[in-house]
Amino acid sequence: MTQVIRVILPQHLRTLAQVGGELRIEIDGPVTQRSVLDALEARYPMLRGTIRDQVTQQRRPFLRFFACEEDLSHESPDAPLPEAVSSGAEPLIVIGAIAGG
């Protein structure tokens, strides 16, 4: 069953992918961080290596994943995303973390 997932990227990644606003990504099978990122990178190959390391598949340190007002950054990449994300009611939000001293 194909599901349409909404994804919001930070501005610098939207610029790189040459898109504006919210993206809609089709997912076949379970909706997880991994399946969403796989589909996102397949559709927008220029994003490969920007959200997660290409070799280790680990999330980049200064990016966070949020959905349904929850920080999902430390969840397993294969854990199902919340039902509201799977149904398209809520977006998966990728946020560039702010660092400084």
Keywords, separated by commas or semicolons:
Ubiquitin-like (UB roll); 101 residues; 3 helices; alpha+beta; 22% helix
Can you offer a commentary on this structure?
The chain is α+β, with helices and mostly antiparallel strands and 101 residues long. It has a single domain, classed as Beta-grasp domain (Ubiquitin-like (UB roll)), CATH 3.10.20.30. It is 22% helix and 25% strand. The chain has three helices and five strands. The chain has a five-stranded mixed beta sheet with strand order 2-1-5-3-4, with helices on one face. The longest helix is centred in the middle third of the chain and has 11 residues. It starts with a strand and ends in a 5-residue tail after the last strand. The model has no long low-confidence stretch (mean pLDDT 92).
Largest sheet: 5 strands, mixed
Low-confidence stretches: none
What is the CATH third-level topology name?
Ubiquitin-like (UB roll)
Cα Rg: 13 Å
- How many beta-strand segments? 5
CATH top level? Alpha Beta
Helix content: 10-25%
* CATH homology group: Beta-grasp domain
Number of domains: 1
Biggest sheet strand order reads: 2-1-5-3-4
What is the count of helical runs? 3
Mean pLDDT: 92
Strand content: 15-25%
- Which CATH architecture is right? Roll
Terminal CA distance: 47 Å
What is the H/E order?
A: EHEHEEHE
Structural class: alpha+beta
Shape: globular
